[in-house]
Write a structure and sequence with these properties.
The complex is a heterotrimer of chains A (about 140), B (about 375) and C (about 270). Chain A is mainly β and about 140 residues long. Chain A has one helix at about 15; strands at about 5, 30, 40-45, 55-65, 70-80, 85, 90-95, 100-105, 110-120, 130-135. Chain C is α/β, with parallel strands linked by helices. Chain C has one domain: Alpha-Beta Barrel (TIM Barrel), CATH 3.20.20. Helices cover about 45% and strands about 15% of the residues of chain C. Chain C has eleven helices and ten strands. Residues about 1-20 of chain C have low confidence and may be disordered. Classes of the chains: A mainly beta (about 140), B mainly alpha (about 375), C alpha/beta (about 270).
């Protein structure tokens, strides 16, 4: 996967406006869930092999309105232990609706909850969606 | 495939006590040893001349400004390259227990607080520490230049007279690192048990004592030990609050990981820095992306457990004199000390005397490699 | 944020150098029995003064620590009554009827501004002990410093709709949930103790920043001295707070650092 830009936290609207290709997830990707009504779906390809090793995630958003995604946030917590990761993942924008996340790191075995939130840019019509995925790490 | 086959055997043979899931968890603690290859951040890693040079330097008091101590003064091979003291003694009593130097390539962070992210940078710390060997880069260069080492140094790194003091410091430390990364524990009775399980060899697996097997069951089960002491080296390489007090004196505390993070963010000798010989900066992601958390204060690196029988006393301040004391500590852990959010893993275990002995038998089986 | 924090520490050298800067109301401190044994009260007061902590909401298990500290620094300490004598009772205290006697006894002897920090999740609030705790707070119009989830917050306000509640650690909830809870309960405040997700190396997290701008009067800082050694983190935490707050407009930074807690205490 080609890394187009390193954008640790905030994505520039110009990057997203530059291309208009519709993103869609590959067949092996796992769908994330959301408690909200969302106009698009989120899918992840996980590079997790084992705990205590950094891994990557490819994220795909498919459906209506992905062009409104201005930035995303990615993190993971261990709900049973009430702690998160010790590292801040880096987010790489690949094209609209497709992101590569590096520096994911699960330091304990057990159930982790991947949390992905999408945020629109508009202050007047701000919209965010939270997607989650339970991942068992060993 | 192996698991399913073993599950059948488990029902039939009583000398392998583990369930299918326990066997699967056990396999995660190997194979051992791991072949790490050369350290890309150190251009003399794996170089036999550098290893010999590093070994000579390791025991040479020339690395201390007053020539009154060497690396080996604290890192004694007799004690797993640790010492038998609760807290190390350099030019004075230091704040922490001397960590073992075995299996360093399995580390992501070094020292109890992770103030460095590679072996050669960690080797620089005691050389420069005023309370330990007390050199500065200039005095070290003078000491090496005036010794019998310039020829060896020159073959490995070039003419010392043309090197800046900081470069000499780093090169000497890379030779030390080349030696230290060869210090590894071998296969133990646990590894033979684990490998036999993987191979489906129940006869060999059955020679591992029942007591150690029961201890292993506690370790990966009710004891929750494997949450942190995970993987082939029995450490996740991260930092945790194990409920050990961290006052150094009545008015001074050991900042632990918080201090380590402060140190590494100011340290020029990281895997992300210019002194690394790796153009790919392999492993630099950790120092670049490590996250500051309030819980870092007073947490310490999870030590690997291989070879642990040689490295008593235990914990960052050597406050627990033997493995029995460590087991007792976790068995009756003081929940008053732990934050309700963040370390919700540790609970008093309520182990019986037999269970404590079993856990110790398992821990001892990680050290019987004859090294 | 760590880079920024360290830069501040390096440049300024010591915590005391900050004491004339942004005033801090530390809304989440404990001087519990083990801390009281190991750190002399005078030393604790020195730590607070060196850190520029001008006010502090202090609760302790047991309460003697709070009283000692209040006697030593009445200008700083805003006393809260913790309902249990040992932190080990965090998950069981609500089922111990002796807690009621303890609360009534201490409330009759000493002056308090709050009851808490108390830990309670969901239906815990419906226990006899916590319902009585709420009644006692209501009788005296005391603030409730609550550590728990949104369900518990809902039940507290069900029991006492006019309550003033300080939500410890902002419930360790995400910005959206915190926003919804603040919106639902105008007399809820939120402390940011033991969390650092509101800021990172790039500055204040944009979602938290929106929250601080939308609810500028509702947040406050706190360092949570849950173990004795953590007292030596109070100064570091005050500097950490000053560092990330410096990314916000000055008036909002002042509110979160100090003024909101003062207003919350005064909003009887």
């Amino acid at each position: 996967m080609i890394k187009l830009a390193v954008l640790p936290s905030i994505f520039g609207a110009s990057l997203l406006a530059a291309t208009s290709a519709q993103a869609c997830a590959p067949s092996g990707a796992v769908e994330l869930t959301s408690l909200q009504e969302t106009p698009f779906q989120a899918y992840a390809e996980l590079g997790l092999e084992t705990i205590s090793k950094p891994f990557e995630i490819d994220l795909y958003f498919c459906g209506d309105g992905i062009e409104k995604i201005y930035r995303i946030k990615v993190d993971a917590i261990m709900p049973a232990h009430q702690h998160g990761m010790n590292y801040t993942p880096e987010i790489y924008g690949i094209e609209p609706g497709i992101y590569q996340i590096s520096g994911m790191f699960f330091h304990m075995p057990g159930m982790w909850e991947l949390q992905v939130s999408t945020h629109s840019a508009s202050e007047t019509d701000a919209q965010s969606y939270l997607f989650t995925l339970d991942i068992t790490a060993r | 495939m192996v698991f399913g086959m073993l599950a059948g055997f488990t029902a039939a043979k009583s000398d392998v006590l583990l369930s299918e899931d326990e066997i699967a968890q056990t396999l995660l603690h190997g194979p051992w040893p791991i072949e790490y290859g050369k350290d890309p951040s150190n251009r003399v890693s794996g170089n036999l001349e550098a290893i010999a040079f590093g070994k000579a330097l390791f025991s040479d008091p020339i690395l201390s400004r007053d020539e009154n101590m060497s690396c080996a003064s604290c890192h004694d091979p007799e004690y797993g390259f640790s010492d038998a003291l609760p807290r190390a003694v350099g030019q004075k009593l230091l704040d922490r227990n001397t960590p073992s130097l075995m299996n360093l390539r399995s580390h992501r962070w070094f020292g109890w607080a992770g103030g460095t992210d590679n072996i050669w940078a960690q080797s620089i710390d005691p050389i420069l520490n005023i309370d330990e060997m007390g050199h500065d880069a200039e005095s070290l260069r003078s000491a090496i230049a005036g010794s019998t080492y310039p020829q060896t140094y020159g073959k490995l790194f070039g003419d010392i007279s043309k090197h800046a003091p900081e470069d000499v410091l780093v090169n000497i430390s890379k030779a030390l690192a080349a030696y230290q990364e060869t210090l590894r524990t071998g296969q133990t009775s646990f590894d033979r048990f684990r490998n036999a399980l993987e191979a489906g060899d129940l006869t060999t697996a059955g020679t591992y004592s029942d007591s150690a097997q029961r201890g292993l069951q506690l370790f990966i089960g009710r004891g929750n030990c494997a949450f942190c002491h995970s993987g082939p080296a029995f450490t996740n390489g991260e930092f945790h609050d194990a409920g050990v007090p961290y006052f150094i004196t009545e008015t001074r505390v050991d900042e632990g990981r918080f201090g380590g993070l402060k140190a590494i963010k100011q340290n020029p000798f990281t895997l992300a820095g210019d002194y690394s010989d790796d153009p790919e900066k392999t492993g630099a992601w950790a120092v670049n992306q490590v996250r500051f958390q309030h819980s870092d204060f007073g947490t310490f690196r999870v030590p690997g457990l291989r070879g642990a029988t040689k490295t008593a006393p235990y914990m960052h301040n050597g406050s627990l004199k033997d493995l029995a004391a460590v087991v007792d500590h976790y068995n009756a852990i003081n929940m008053e000390r732990l934050h309700v959010d963040g370390e919700a893993i540790l609970q008093p275990l309520g182990l019986s005397p037999q269970e404590k002995n079993d856990l110790i038998a398992f821990l001892e089986s990680l050290s019987d490699d004859g090294s | 944020m760590i880079i920024r924090l360290i830069a501040a520490l390096t440049l300024l050298g010591s915590v005391s150098a900050h004491s004339e800067e942004l005033q801090i109301f530390d809304a989440h401190l404990h001087y519990s029995h083990d801390a009281a044994l190991q750190i002399p009260t005078e030393q604790v007061v020195k730590i607070l003064r060196d850190a520029g902590v001008k006010k502090a909401l202090v609760s302790s298990s047991d309460d003697d620590g709070t009283q000692k500290l209040k006697a030593a620094a009445p200008d700083i300490v805003v006393p809260a009554l913790r309902p249990y004598k040992r932190r080990g009772a965090i998950s069981t205290w609500m089922n111990d009827l002796n807690v009621i006697d303890y609360l009534e006894d201490r409330l009759s002897q000493f002056e308090y501004e709050a009851i808490g920090e108390f830990h309670a999740y969901g239906d815990d609030i419906n226990t006899k002990v916590i319902q009585r705790l709420i009644e006692l707070a209501k009788e005296r119009n005391l603030l409730l410093h609550h550590h728990g989830d949104r369900a518990a917050v809902d039940l507290i306000f069900d029991a006492w709709p006019e309550a003033r509640v300080l939500w410890a650690h902002s419930g360790f909830a995400g910005p959206d949930e915190v926003a919804d809870t603040l919106e639902t309960y105008p007399k809820l405040w939120a402390d940011l103790a033991y969390r650092s997700d509101m800021a990172n190396a790039e500055g204040v997290d944009p979602d938290w920043e929106k929250l601080f701008m939308k609810y500028p009067d509702r947040f406050m800082v706190g360092s949570d001295t849950f173990a004795p050694e953590r007292w030596y983190y109070v100064g570091v935490h005050a500097d950490f707070s000053r560092s990330w707050l410096s990314d916000l407009p000055d008036d909002i930074a002042r509110k979160i650092a100090f003024e909101n807690a003062v207003a919350m205490i005064a909003a009887k």
